[in-house]
Write a structure and sequence with these properties.
3-stranded antiparallel β-sheet, about 375 residues, single chain
Length: about 375
């Protein structure tokens, strides 16, 4: 795969010459950083010939806060609240990525109760995230009602999170050695009632949006990303699996309780916007399967095996851990000097950063309206890109 390096200035001041037979002229349009479909403060520079996209240049950085550098001045427990400000729709899973990396490096043991609860909470958040994505995708393409339905389910799951964690969005719940809080006595009963309700909601989604002929026209055979190109771009999560690559860390590494439950890794066949839509909808059904297999079997035990005030010092060297979030592989790279309870260096491998650059490869040649479909199908969360 060839790569051409150029600056934003090179692109913005290149000759604007159309290559069509009509007498037209190329022009540049800024989509964002404040735009209804920007999914956050993301600027996209589109080079257009009429309504045809000729070149796409993402310009991230508007939400950059220096999170990784700040984490190099914090203990491993203090880092956790910063991870849920990245991909805030995968906050619990981001917590887990740091906790899992620290536990593996420091040899910290957990118990089955902790791993059961971590897995169930992560799948509840995957459902919450995909439901919101479904609603936002509908809204991006003109179906505002879908947004209201998607947010309805998000809020119902959010109530369960709030009762347990005390927060609905930026949740710092999973910590090295266990959990911040134990689940409430009625947690199991509420989740069991939620499962059939959400199954019915997914069927509603199919009726409201999936079967709509206009919606299908906006997604089918639009923005095709083949498996080889997806791998070359470093894509992960539903974006990669929609291109036919069955890569899912839950199945490959079997961390938490994933190695003890049965679920399917959903893959697409074409790699278009429709496949990216289909994969996420089917993943919601698989998340319900996972929760259903675990919810009645949560064992007794402590919700943390590590004292809150315990000093955690990692062995000298480089340590890496990763988790399958709602948007793909979230990796944590820690360099420790072996002496201090804070990392010498820390880096987050965020799935959204790699998935963002898909637009540069597959959007050229499509119309502006198609670009909206393409960007929506990637399910980007911008703070995870900028960090």
């Amino acid at each position: 795969m060839s790569v051409r390096v150029c600056t934003l200035d090179d692109l913005l001041h290149a000759p604007l010459e159309a290559d069509s037979d009509l007498t037209t002229q190329e022009y540049l349009v800024n989509m964002g950083p404040q735009h209804p479909i920007a999914h956050g403060s993301l600027r996209i520079v589109l080079r257009l010939d009429g309504e045809t996209v000729k070149h796409v240049l993402p310009v991230p950085g508007y939400v950059h806060r220096g999170v990784e550098k700040m984490c190099e001045h914090l203990t491993y427990r203090q880092i956790i609240p910063y991870t849920d400000r990245l991909d805030y729709l995968s906050a619990i899973m981001n917590n887990w990525a740091v906790a899992r990396t620290v536990e593996a490096a420091a040899g910290i043991e957990t118990n089955e109760r902790i791993e059961y609860i971590r897995t169930i909470m992560s799948e509840l958040q995957r459902l919450q995230s995909h439901a919101l994505w479904w609603g936002v995708t509908g809204m991006d393409l003109g179906a505002y009602t879908a947004f209201l339905y998607g947010f309805r389910e998000r809020e119902i799951i959010g109530e369960i999170f709030e009762e347990t964690i005390g927060a609905r969005l930026t949740m710092n719940y999973i910590q090295p050695g266990g959990l911040m809080y134990d689940i409430r006595p009625d947690f199991v009963a509420k989740v069991k009632r939620l499962i059939p309700y959400l199954r019915g909601c997914i069927e509603q989604y199919e009726t409201l949006l999936t079967g709509n002929a206009i919606f299908q026209e906006r997604l089918r055979n639009i923005g095709i990303l083949d498996g080889a190109k997806a791998l070359a771009l470093g894509c992960t999560g539903p974006v990669l699996r929609a291109s036919g690559v069955p890569y899912d860390l839950r199945a490959i590494e079997g961390y938490g309780m994933y190695g003890k439950v049965n679920f399917n890794v959903v893959v697409g066949s074409v790699g278009d916007c429709w496949d990216r839509y289909y994969v996420r909808l089917e993943e919601m059904r698989e998340s319900l399967r996972i929760i259903e297999q675990l919810i009645d079997s949560i064992p007794e035990g402590a919700f943390s095996t590590l004292h809150y005030n315990a000093d955690v010092i990692l062995p000298e060297g480089t340590h890496y851990g990763q988790i399958e979030t709602a948007r793909g592989v979230f990796g944590v790279l820690i360099v420790s000097d072996g002496k201090s309870g804070i990392p010498y260096r820390l880096h987050f491998r965020s799935p959204n950063f790699n998935n963002l650059w898909v637009v540069t490869a597959i959007a050229p040649g499509w119309r502006i309206a198609d670009f909206i479909s393409i960007q929506s199908s990637l399910d980007l969360v911008v703070p995870d890109i900028d960090r």
